[in-house]
C-alpha cells in the first residue's frame, strides 16, 4: 500500500532522517518507535506529504505522492503530536468546521459527526466548549477530526502524550477497533514501548534519524537470542553498586532507574553469586533478582546502548 524509498530530510548540515526504507501493507498497524529526537515526527511529516524530503520518495500503490500530494491527502487521516483544535468552539462545531474542510456537507456531515462523537466517547459533551475539556478529551476529539472523512490510512504521531491512563487506554482500544472492524491501516509513532507492543503488527525502530531494526515483536526480540536480561530491585541503589556492575566482565550492558537495574548478559551466564557479593560490598540490600523475558526496551538498549526515554 505504502512504500518509503531512501527517504531523507536534511536541515542545513543535520540529517533528521537518513535513507529511511519502509513498507506498509493494507490493514496493518505499523509502529514507528524511538526516543524524542529520533526523527519520527519528521518522517511522519514526509509520509503525510506535509514536508518535502531532501531525497527519496513515498509511493502509494506504486505512485509517488510527491507529484500529486492532493490526491493522497484525500485518503489520509492525520493525528498530529500537538492538539489541533479551536478551543473556543464546541466539540460539535470543531467537527463541523473540519468536516467542511474535507468537503463533507449536509446529511453526510451530520451523520459522520454523530458517528465520530460516539466513537471517541464525547457524544454527551458535544455542545461543550473544547477549552473546558481535559487533555485526554482533547486528544480523543483530535482523533475524531482525523476520522471524519473515513480515511484509508490513519497516521498518529504520539497521540497519548501527557494524558491520563484512562484516556490513553480508550485511545489504544479505539485504534485496535478501527483496525479490526474497518480494516483501517494505521501508522502509529510512540516512545512508549508498551503501546507499540500492544497495538502493532510490525515495528520499525529509529534512533538519531536512522532505522536500526524492523520486524514483528518476536522477530525483533530474537535479536537478543544469545543474551538474557536480569532485573535487580532495591530501595538502596547507589552509584558504587551501579559502577561495579558496569565494570563487571560478564555484564554486557546496564540500564538503571531509581529502584531497578536491568542487566544484559550472555544467556549461559549465572550472576546471582556475584550480585550478592557486589551488593554486600556496596552496602545495599537487594529486594529481588530474577531473569526477565526480553522486551522491546531490552532490544533498544542492546542496539543503542541507552534507554528509550534517555
UniProtKB/TrEMBL annotation:
| Keyword presence, Thylakoid | no
Keywords from the named record: ATP-binding, Nucleotide-binding
What does the record give under GO molecular function?
ATP binding; ATP hydrolysis activity
Q: Which Pfam families has this protein been placed in? A: ABC_tran (PF00005)
Q: Which domain of life is it from?
A: Bacteria
Residue ranges of domain ABC transporter in the record: 2-233
Q: What is this protein called?
A: Daunorubicin/doxorubicin resistance ATP-binding protein DrrA
Gene field: drrA
Amino acid at each position: 500500500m505504502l512504500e518509503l524509498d531512501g527517504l531523507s530530510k536534511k536541515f542545513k548540515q543535520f540529517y533528521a532522517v537518513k535513507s529511511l526504507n519502509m513498507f506498509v501493507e493494507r490493514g496493518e498497524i505499523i509502529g514507528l518507535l524511538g526516543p524524542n529526537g529520533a526523527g519520527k515526527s519528521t518522517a511522519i511529516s514526509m509520509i503525510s506529504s506535509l514536508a518535502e524530503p531532501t531525497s527519496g520518495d513515498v509511493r502509494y500503490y506504486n505512485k509517488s505522492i510527491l507529484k500529486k500530494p492532493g490526491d493522497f491527502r484525500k485518503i489520509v487521516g492525520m493525528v498530529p503530536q500537538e492538539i489541533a483544535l479551536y478551543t473556543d468552539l464546541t466539540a460539535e462545531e470543531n467537527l463541523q468546521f473540519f468536516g467542511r474542510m474535507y468537503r463533507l456537507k449536509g446529511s453526510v456531515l451530520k451523520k459522520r459527526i454523530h458517528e465520530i462523537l460516539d466513537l471517541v466517547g464525547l457524544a454527551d459533551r458535544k455542545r461543550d466548549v473544547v477549552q473546558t475539556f481535559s487533555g485526554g478529551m482533547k486528544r480523543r476529539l483530535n482523533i475524531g477530526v482525523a476520522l471524519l472523512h473515513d480515511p484509508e490510512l490513519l497516521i498518529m504521531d504520539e497521540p497519548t502524550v501527557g494524558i491520563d491512563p484512562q484516556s490513553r487506554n480508550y485511545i489504544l482500544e479505539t485504534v485496535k477497533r478501527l483496525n479490526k472492524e474497518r480494516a483501517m491501516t494505521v501508522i502509529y509513532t510512540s516512545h512508549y514501548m508498551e503501546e507499540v507492543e500492544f497495538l502493532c503488527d510490525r515495528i520499525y525502530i529509529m534512533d538519531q534519524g536512522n532505522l536500526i531494526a524492523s520486524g514483528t515483536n518476536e522477530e525483533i526480540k530474537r535479536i537478543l537470542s544469545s543474551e538474557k536480561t536480569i532485573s535487580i530491585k532495591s530501595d538502596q541503589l547507589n552509584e558504587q553498586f551501579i559502577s561495579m556492575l558496569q565494570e563487571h566482565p560478564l555484564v554486557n550492558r546496564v540500564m538503571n532507574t531509581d529502584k531497578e537495574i536491568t542487566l544484559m548478559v550472555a544467556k549461559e551466564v549465572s550472576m546471582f553469586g556475584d550480585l550478592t557479593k557486589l551488593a554486600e560490598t556496596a552496602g545495599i540490600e537487594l529486594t529481588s533478582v530474577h531473569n526477565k523475558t526480553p522486551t522491546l526496551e531490552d532490544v533498544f538498549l542492546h542496539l543503542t546502548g541507552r534507554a528509550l526515554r534517555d
